Task: inverse folding
């Protein structure tokens, strides 16, 4: 049978999502180890979207195939008992074989959270990106609007990105201030490697006043990553949600306590 899971994790102490060589702590490695114990056979999971070192997940979705007969409750409780405190399974669903965590997804959402005040936060370290210089969220929002739509995002992807095409469709990009927090929300059909962090880097420079609002579209039109802006730190980035066709019945992520 095919099982789908909702996964939540604090990426601060992980070397990203993807399993690597032995001894390197990744989210995939600890999740597969936990599920293997419940299934009593080796389990390999497929995720909706890989995240980098230091990036968090509140709405990650994975699937795996198994011959082990367990209730959804047993997968949920048994998996969580065997997981470290910085990873949690939030829901479990038995799925049809035509469901695929990655290829069935129609869109994905990320959120980038900036803590913007003169003094850093001791309790939010590792969970937000701190910028002490004042940011103008209205300028950042105006600059980001030109990126909405289908574009060649070569200037906004990592040089090491392995995607076959740099073309992606941004459905939404907003920047809002909530007190000391400046929050960038991005919704797209799919994302390139470092795409959100590179967009954030450009918008932060614009928000500080170091660059004009028009710089975001100028970078886009260059189609050259080496001429783009800085890559923003990973700490403020959250993999927020994956959308699927409604027939799969995938639950929305639980976001209580999530940065505004």
Result:
């Amino acid at each position: 049978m095919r099982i789908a899971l909702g996964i939540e994790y604090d990426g601060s102490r992980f070397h990203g999502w993807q399993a690597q060589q032995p001894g390197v702590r990744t989210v995939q490695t600890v999740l597969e180890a936990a599920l293997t114990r419940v299934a009593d056979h080796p389990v390999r999971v497929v995720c909706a979207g890989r995240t980098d070192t230091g990036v968090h997940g509140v709405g990650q979705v994975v699937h795996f195939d198994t011959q082990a007969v367990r209730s959804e409750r047993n997968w949920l409780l048994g998996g969580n008992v065997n997981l470290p405190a910085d990873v949690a399974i939030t829901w479990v669903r038995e799925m049809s074989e035509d469901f695929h965590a990655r290829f069935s997804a129609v869109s994905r959402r990320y959120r980038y959270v900036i803590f913007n005040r003169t003094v850093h936060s001791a309790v939010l370290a590792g969970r937000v990106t701190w910028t002490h210089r004042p940011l103008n969220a209205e300028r950042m929002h105006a600059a980001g609007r030109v990126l909405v739509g289908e574009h060649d995002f070569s200037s906004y992807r990592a040089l090491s990105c392995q995607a076959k095409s740099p073309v992606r469709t941004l459905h939404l990009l907003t920047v809002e201030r909530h007190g000391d927090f400046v929050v960038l929300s991005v919704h797209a059909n799919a994302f390139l490697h470092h795409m959100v962090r590179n967009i954030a880097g450009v918008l932060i420079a614009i928000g500080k006043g170091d660059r004009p609002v028009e710089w975001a579209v100028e970078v886009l039109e260059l189609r050259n990553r080496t001429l783009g802006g800085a890559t923003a730190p990973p700490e403020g980035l959250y993999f927020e949600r994956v959308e699927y066709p409604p027939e799969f019945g995938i639950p929305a992520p639980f976001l209580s306590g999530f940065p505004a």
Q: What stands out?
A: Residues 195-208 form the longest helix (14 residues). The domain at 2-104 is CATH 3.30.70.580 (Alpha-Beta Plaits).
